[in-house]
Design goal:
The chain has a three-stranded mixed sheet with strand order 1-2-3, with helices on one face. It has one domain (21-99): GMP Synthetase, Chain A, domain 3. The chain is α+β, with helices and mostly antiparallel strands and 100 residues long. 19% of the residues are buried. 35% of the residues lie in helices and 18% in strands. It has three helices and three strands.
Length: 100
């Protein structure tokens, strides 16, 4: 592949401004939710970007709600912790809401 003058490829990340905000935390949340539930096709994640943080709203089938929340909310809290860590890696503040 030869480059003509003026068409040089530089090492600058030109698409840095085109990244989707909260893409990594959303992917992590989707992976975790689909792994836990019995009906992974019913997992839907809505993304809402606010001033302070990006909110990920997790929807699962009604019969899977108990699995996602867990005893005393421990599974839900663990999911929130892991997703926030994924957001911190991308320097994004993320909240997770589990919606009925």
């Amino acid at each position: 592949m030869s480059l003509e003058p003026g068409n040089e490829v530089d090492d600058v990340d030109d698409d840095a401004g085109n990244r989707i905000e909260g893409a990594t935390p959303r992917a992590v949340l989707e992976y975790l939710a689909r792994s836990i539930v019995d009906d992974p096709d019913a997992v839907v994640i809505d993304v809402e970007e606010g001033r302070r943080a990006t909110t990920l709203r997790l929807h699962v089938a009604p019969e899977d709600m108990g699995k996602v929340i867990g005893k005393r909310g421990r599974v839900a809290q663990a999911i929130r912790t892991v997703v926030r860590a994924a957001g911190a890696r991308d320097q994004v503040s993320v909240d997770v809401d589990i919606v009925d």
